[in-house]
Amino acid sequence: MTHLCIVIPMKSPSCAKQRLAGCLSASERQQLAVSLYANTLAFFQQHFPQHQVVVISQSCVVLSLAKSYGAHGLREEGKEGLNEALWQACQWVKKAGFTHQVIVPSDISLLDKQEFDLLFAVATQQQVVIAQAKDGGTNALVSSPPDAIGFHYGLHSAAQHAQAAKRQGLSFCQLRLPHLAQDIDQGEDLDRAITQQAEHFLPWCETTRKWPVKERQYA
What we know:
- By secondary structure, this protein is an alpha/beta fold.
- It has 8 helices and 7 strands.
- The chain has helices at about 25-45, 60-70, 80-95, 115-125, 155-165, 185-195, 200-210, 215, and strands spanning about 5-10, 50-55, 70-75, 100-105, 130, 140-145, 170-175.
- Strands 3-2-1-4-6-5-7 form a 7-stranded mixed sheet, with helices on both faces.
- β2 (about 50-55), α2 and β3 form a beta-alpha-beta unit.
- α1 (about 25-45) packs antiparallel against α7 (about 200-210) and α6 (about 185-195) crosses α7.
- The radius of gyration is 17 Å and the shape is globular.
- The N and C termini lie far apart (about 40 Å).
């Protein structure tokens, strides 16, 4: 599937990971958000270089980092949040001639190539593919054409995206992929992520000195 565009929305790092405020300082949350985002860019650059990556954000720092990984940076113009930003990105993707769009968060802790291979394979058979997060959210959304459905990110968004596809009479599929389902919303989520993929968190852990990675790596 060569006509697929990967869209990554990214908040300004200073506004990211607010739900971790109980266990991380503002500086630590910002550093964590940037670290996860960089890992995401590196993952797609390494494993799926054939696909265009587009990052939409209000942050100049975020857009500059996207460029360093070969991604296209798109400055977010609206003020109405994630769904409006994604619709803006979708219009760019459609105008650029892509037949498929996949939206992926910037902060999935464990990105697995085999899971994305499956996601993309299913997308050749279905117009909408939803990879559900553990809390009922949407951690990947593939649509063909890119604007096949509106975006309903928020509480229980996976079910809302499925309903949107059903209303439009589109073929759709919901996937539960073990790694892609994992968010980092609570301290225990972060602890688990560091244990599972310590090498991706090593620079951040060394900066914060909060997690002894070498001791926990194979716990």
